[in-house]
Structure formats: C-alpha cells, structure tokens
Design brief:
Elements lengths: L2 H14 L4 H7 L6 H7 L8 H11 L18 E12 L4 E2 L5 E8 H5 L9 E7 L12 E5 L10 E7 L2 E9 L5 E5 L8 E5 L4 E10 L4
Parallel strand pairs: 1-4
Antiparallel strand pairs: 1-3, 2-7, 4-5, 5-10, 6-7, 6-10, 7-8, 8-9
Length: 215
C-alpha cells in the first residue's frame, strides 16, 4: 500500500469514528496539530513506525491498513476497502441513513483489477439482506460494489440501487434501443419492474464479487 492510501485510510477512520485530531496527536506524543497536518497538508510525508503502530493498535487495524508494510510473504500492493455498516436489501429494501464503515479490509490490487477496470478506490463491501436474489445471492452474503461502475457504464448485470432512500440489490437488463431498463429479482417469488426509465433509478454501483461465511 502506498502512503496516500495510508493517509486516506486514517482520515476515513477518524471521520467514521468521530475521533478528535488533537486527542490522537496527544495519544502518540505529538503536538496537537500533528495528525491534522499529516492528513490535510501532507506534513509529515509519512508516519514514523512507532506512530503508525500506536494508531493501528488504537483503531484495531493492521499497520498495513495505515500504510505500513504487508505481512511477510504477502503482496504489499494492498487497497483498503471499507466494509460499510449497512445492508443492501435483497427483499423489501434497507434504508441506509448512515453509510459508515465498520471495518477496513485490505485487498490485493492486482486481484481487484481482475474484477473491474474501474477505480478500485471506489469499491466498498456491504452485506446482502433478504432472499429475493436467491440462489445467486443469499441473506448475509458480503458483496463488493464498484461505485465507479454505475450509470455511465451501465450494462446487464447485478447492481446496488437506491430507490426512495432504500438500498436494494437487483438484476438489471437494458433495453437494446432505448434508455430504459428492467429490474428483476432472481427469486421468482418476488416481483420486478419490467419497464423503468434510467433517469428514475439511482445506480450506486455494480456487484463484482460475493463471499459468504460457512454455516
């Protein structure tokens, strides 16, 4: 991971957990403006190993997530992906009033490049809620959503949409000649929307990967 990624990861952690710059600076024995200058002005260019270690311990993340070296034997070209504390409903709809990260996860950059040609910095992980996309997606599945692969690159596939303030995950099929689309569920027990104007749908991003825990 490069130092820009580490700085951005620290900024996200501070904002998501509503931490205080000055308090964090004092935590690592620095002047009150130290962390704010590091994030907003790029000074210093990088954290010392000791400062990084203390901050990683405080936030409960790996040092690699803050720009440190990856564990021995691992590819150090990691991209930090936020796991958002929300669910994309594969059912009636889950409201996403606070899209805050519950964790930051490191993914190999080359592996992500095999999934998307978009901006890997706009990928996030969210949880599937409900069974309307079964058997393709199950309740509790974790999915990677590429926010850079949205309306401007829209094509047939599975997408996360925001409809009336609710996040839903559905399958989209584009009309071959018009700027219209159909929205459907893989579970035939759920209804779909066979004819929608593209302008009426807020495309959040394309689902590019799914993982699930063993039960």
């Amino acid at each position: 991971m490069n130092m820009i990624d580490g700085r951005e990861a620290l900024r996200r952690l501070i904002e998501e957990r509503r931490e205080d710059y000055s308090a964090l600076s004092r935590l690592i024995g620095r002047n009150p403006a130290y962390i704010q200058q590091f994030i907003k002005r790029g000074t210093p260019r990088r954290l010392s190993e000791e400062d990084r270690r203390r901050l990683a311990q405080y936030f409960g993340v790996s040092e690699a997530a803050l720009g440190g070296p990856a564990p021995r034997g691992a590819d150090n070209k990691l991209v930090v992906i936020p796991r958002l504390d929300i669910g994309a409903s594969a059912g009636p709809g889950a409201f996403a009033e606070e899209e805050r990260a519950s964790a930051l996860l490191g993914f190999d950059r080359n592996w992500l490049r095999g999934l998307t040609r978009g901006d890997v910095g706009q990928i996030s992980m969210i949880r599937v809620a409900g069974d309307s996309m079964a058997p393709t997606l199950s309740d509790g599945d974790e999915i990677l959503v590429d926010g850079s692969d949205a309306a401007t690159r829209l094509r047939d596939g599975i997408y996360v949409l925001r409809i009336d303030g609710a996040l839903v995950v559905k399958r989209i099929a584009l009309h071959p000649a018009e700027r219209r689309l159909s929205i459907s569920s893989d579970n035939p027990a759920y209804p779909g929307w066979p004819d929608c104007a593209l302008s009426d749908v807020d495309i959040v991003g394309r689902v590019i990967w799914v993982g699930r825990p063993l039960r």
